[in-house]
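Hi support team,

I submitted a single chain yesterday and got back a structure, but I'm not sure I'm reading the token output correctly. Could someone confirm the output below corresponds to the sequence I sent? I've pasted both exactly as they appear in my results page.

Thanks,
R.
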Amino acid sequence: RIGATVLAPMLISNQLDVLPGTNSLIKELPFAIHSFLRRLMFRPIRNKASEFSRFAEMLEKDVIKTTVNRNNEGIITFITQNGDNKIELDIKEVSSTIKALSNLIVFLKYDATPDTVLIIDEPELHLHTDSQRRVAQVLAMLVRAGLKVVVSTHSFTILQEFNNLLLLGGK
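Hi R., thanks for writing in. Yes, this is the structure output for that exact sequence:
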């Protein structure tokens, strides 16, 4: 996830025909990787808020403390606050936590629809346990709001939070 996020600006601007440090053309990669990279390069850019954007805002406010945006070319940028000053950062300047969650946030802000299935692998990566709990809560809220979510995790904290939410919510 993070590697694709970092490479996305170069892919989108077609600056990357050959993978760095190799002689491999992108088209020579295994099908799943090639397909994913092509989708990054040529996906339609929608900057209209999706009906799930409020969940992205929860992650921005409660977990990463940064606003994630996508411009008309599909490049992800980040706005952070330093006192009264707003600072715009690119992907190379933000923490691994922000990089790890940025694609999920952009997906929820702009691309999620009720007929989508969100498959997320190890949402706990680079997160403190309090943030893992909050991510689990937001994922559970997404399910309650009608989004289909599949999670693969090794985190006892995430599993424990899902279990607690099930016990408390009855669903």
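A quick pointer for reading it: The longest helix spans residues 96-111. Let us know if anything else looks off.

Best,
Support desk
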